[in-house]
């Protein structure tokens, strides 16, 4: 009841503050992220504030207040663990609003939230990397924001590379982040502690224990100086315990791990506490205390039935502890469970390796693109600087010419005045002789002045001509550099396509030669069993095993063929799609039909044929998985503008929420790489039509 009235008062205060158009949001207590009532109260407050702001007249202050509360709402959703998908929806709403209002600061905040969501998902690292480089591009266009956001972007890239096990790149990015952190006047000590802890964990993985210990101690000092939250202290204590275990200092490790267990106990968080329990069991094994090790390992297994790493550590510790007690039966049982769980972990690891490899390729591609854009920008700046120098020289020449003209005029007036004085003093002398002398002097002066002006004009013309030649030279050099960069980008894209094709061919060969052979050998081994001697139940299992092996071998052959069909390499795109349709119709799920030009070989490059086949395969897979269609039609037509590939199904259509997860962005990128266009039309309940148009030749 006390909690209810307190948050009701908070709502009232928030409403009163809104009338003054303030956008101060409350602080979020990360230690209470698992408390449903606490999170719900903050979300209720956020929704109330956003709704009230929407009723106010549109002003810059009101817009800022609305964006700040949307940012706070997305943060609360993300840190409540169970509702992180909602954080992505609110962050997208914030990004759209900030873009409409041309507010770069909140665009960056929204991209930070989206990046953190994709990075936390574990299988969306490529999208997280793309968002980080998008933020770098925004900062390049808005240098005043660099000090506040550059270190955050490098921190994100460091953590992504840590998850991808790219340790050298992770260390490079995290060190860059530390260097930039000192330039941010708003940087907080707990953020600096997190940076040192992240860098220490990479050094720990890389077995650079002395450097890891230095950064762990630095992180602990910054957390203590801020009296950091319990969850930060718990994670840091657990990581330091793991470090001292690696340094073979179990007694020191035990001190830190016991602190971590106490912190997690105060936070009522059994899952992360199980990690510390498994590590403390290892410390007791190293200290020769098997009873304590067994008790803590069993407690870790009881509290965590999900995370592979924790359960594997606990089971491995049980094997060692039972071995110290010479309890070989329990040691064997623990070893059996460990091997089974290790196999499951390896399968999960294999499934995520492809995603990680794609993320590494995406990071390398974006880094190359970013470097090229920086080089082009620098060349543009150099060109502008040269043009500015030329303008300054031209202005200087014009100024010099004007000064010389002014001096000439002054000299002319002075000579004329002297001539008048001479004429006045000698007026009584012979007038005719004076007039003749004045005429001769005047003509001589004019001729000399004209010659000087001609010489000056000729010199200026030579200088301007030289500057023009220099400008033409630098323009030609810049054009050659641009052509070289474009050619290099084309080579990089071609290399990526070739790499994908070679990787598909390698995987297909491995599946066909090794996995199929292994399945065949397994089947032959099982067939050596005399089924007639088996009891009925075992005989049924025997027959079911043979059936499953046949089915697995069939699926491996089909998968290896789909990855890079032989017909695509030998007979071209038309025959490859024709065979793909025949194999898809064997599944008896969706009936596919295929119409195509009379010519079996089309005027397409190998890269274009490969990309079009991959696009067709991805779209067919989407139809089978999501469309619930009874019939699908594939049309390949040759037109004046190019080659058109159309896929139409009579399924349920595509909703807005499912578009992002169906691989359509990859299809659109492949079509753009071919210089083509991608178009999608879908009516809910009436099917979907996808059109890809690429140029020929």
UniProtKB/TrEMBL annotation:
The chain crosses the membrane at residues 457-476. The keyword ATP-binding does not apply. Its cofactor is [4Fe-4S] cluster. Its EC number is 2.7.13.3. It catalyses: ATP + protein L-histidine = ADP + protein N-phospho-L-histidine. SMART domains: HATPase_c (SM00387), TPR (SM00028). GO terms for molecular function: 4 iron, 4 sulfur cluster binding; metal ion binding; phosphorelay sensor kinase activity; protein dimerization activity. Pfam families: HATPase_c, HisKA_3, TPR_12. It is found in: Cytoplasm. One of its GO terms (cellular component) is membrane. Keywords: 4Fe-4S, Cytoplasm, Iron, Iron-sulfur, Kinase, Membrane, Metal-binding, Transferase, Transmembrane, Transmembrane helix, Two-component regulatory system. Residues 506-697 form the Histidine kinase domain. SUPFAM superfamilies: ATPase domain of HSP90 chaperone/DNA topoisomerase II/histidine kinase (SSF55874), TPR-like (SSF48452). Member of the two-component regulatory system NreB/NreC involved in the control of dissimilatory nitrate/nitrite reduction in response to oxygen. NreB functions as a direct oxygen sensor histidine kinase which is autophosphorylated, in the absence of oxygen, probably at the conserved histidine residue, and transfers its phosphate group probably to a conserved aspartate residue of NreC. NreB/NreC activates the expression of the nitrate (narGHJI) and nitrite (nir) reductase operons, as well as the putative nitrate transporter gene narT. This is Oxygen sensor histidine kinase NreB. The lineage of its organism: Bacteria, Pseudomonadati, Bacteroidota, Cytophagia, Cytophagales.
């Amino acid at each position: 009841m006390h909690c209810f009235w307190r948050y009701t008062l908070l709502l009232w205060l928030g409403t009163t503050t809104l009338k003054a158009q303030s956008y101060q949001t409350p602080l979020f207590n990360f230690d209470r992220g698992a408390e449903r009532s606490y999170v719900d109260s903050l979300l209720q407050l956020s929704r109330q504030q956003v709704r009230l702001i929407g009723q106010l007249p549109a002003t810059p202050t009101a817009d800022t207040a609305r964006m700040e509360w949307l940012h706070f709402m997305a943060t609360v959703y993300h840190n409540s663990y169970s509702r992180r998908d909602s954080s992505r929806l609110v962050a997208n709403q914030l990004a759209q609003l900030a873009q409409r209002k041309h507010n770069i600061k909140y665009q960056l905040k929204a991209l930070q939230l989206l990046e953190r969501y994709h990075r936390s998902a574990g299988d969306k690292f490529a999208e997280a990397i793309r968002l980080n480089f998008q933020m770098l591009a925004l900062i390049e266009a808005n240098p005043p924001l660099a000090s506040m956001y550059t270190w955050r972007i490098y921190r994100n890239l460091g953590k992504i590379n840590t998850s991808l096990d790219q340790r050298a790149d992770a260390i490079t990015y995290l060190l860059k982040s530390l260097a930039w952190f000192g330039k941010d006047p708003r940087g907080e000590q707990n953020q600096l502690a997190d940076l040192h802890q992240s860098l220490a964990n990479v050094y720990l993985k890389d077995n650079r224990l002395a450097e890891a210990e230095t950064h762990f101690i630095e992180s602990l000092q910054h957390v203590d100086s801020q009296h950091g939250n319990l969850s930060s202290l718990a994670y840091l204590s657990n990581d330091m315990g793991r470090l001292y275990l690696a340094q073979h200092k179990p007694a020191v490790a035990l001190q830190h791990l016991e602190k971590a267990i106490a912190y997690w106990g105060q936070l009522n968080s059994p899952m992360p506490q199980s990690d510390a329990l498994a590590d403390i069991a290892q410390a007791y094994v190293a200290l020769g205390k098997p009873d304590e090790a067994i008790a803590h390992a069993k407690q870790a297994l009881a509290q965590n039935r999900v995370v592979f790493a924790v359960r594997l550590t606990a089971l491995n510790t049980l094997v060692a502890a039972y071995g110290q007690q010479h309890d070989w039966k329990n040691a064997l049982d623990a070893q059996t469970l460990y091997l089974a769980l290790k196999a499951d972990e390896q399968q999960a690891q294999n499934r995520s390796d492809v995603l990680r490899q794609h993320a590494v390729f995406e990071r390398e591609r974006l880094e190359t693109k970013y470097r090229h854009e920086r080089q082009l920008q620098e060349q543009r700046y150099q060109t502008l600087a040269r043009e500015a120098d030329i303008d300054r020289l031209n202005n200087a020449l014009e100024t010099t010419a004007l000064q010389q003209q002014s001096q000439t005029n002054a000299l002319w007036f002075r000579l004329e005045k002297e001539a008048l004085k001479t004429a006045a003093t000698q007026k009584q002398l012979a007038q005719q002789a004076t007039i003749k002398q004045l005429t001769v002097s005047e003509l001589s002066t004019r001729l000399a002045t004209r010659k000087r002006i001609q010489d000056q004009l000729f010199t200026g013309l030579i200088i301007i001509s030289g500057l023009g030649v220099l400008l033409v030279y630098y323009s030609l050099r810049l054009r050659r550099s641009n052509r070289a960069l474009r050619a290099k980008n084309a080579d990089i894209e071609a290399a990526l396509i070739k790499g994908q094709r070679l990787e598909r061919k390698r995987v297909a060969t491995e599946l066909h030669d090794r996995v199929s052979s292994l399945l065949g050998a397994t089947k032959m081994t099982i067939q050596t069993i005399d089924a007639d001697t088996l009891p009925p139940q075992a005989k049924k299992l025997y027959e079911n095993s043979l059936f499953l092996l046949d089915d697995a071998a069939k699926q491996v052959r089909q998968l290896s063929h789909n990855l890079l069909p032989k017909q695509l390499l030998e007979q071209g795109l038309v025959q490859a799609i024709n065979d793909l349709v025949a194999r898809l119709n064997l599944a008896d799920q969706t009936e596919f039909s295929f119409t195509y030009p009379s010519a079996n070989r089309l005027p397409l490059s190998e890269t274009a044929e490969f990309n079009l086949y991959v696009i067709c395969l991805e779209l067919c897979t989407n139809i089978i998985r999501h469309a619930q269609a009874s019939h699908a039609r594939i049309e390949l037509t040759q037109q004046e503008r190019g080659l058109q590939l159309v896929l139409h199904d009579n399924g349920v259509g595509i909703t807005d929420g499912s578009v992002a997860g169906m691989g359509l962005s990859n299809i659109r990128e492949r079509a753009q790489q071919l210089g083509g266009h991608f178009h999608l039309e879908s009516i809910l309940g009436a099917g979907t039509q996808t059109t890809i148009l690429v140029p020929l030749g």
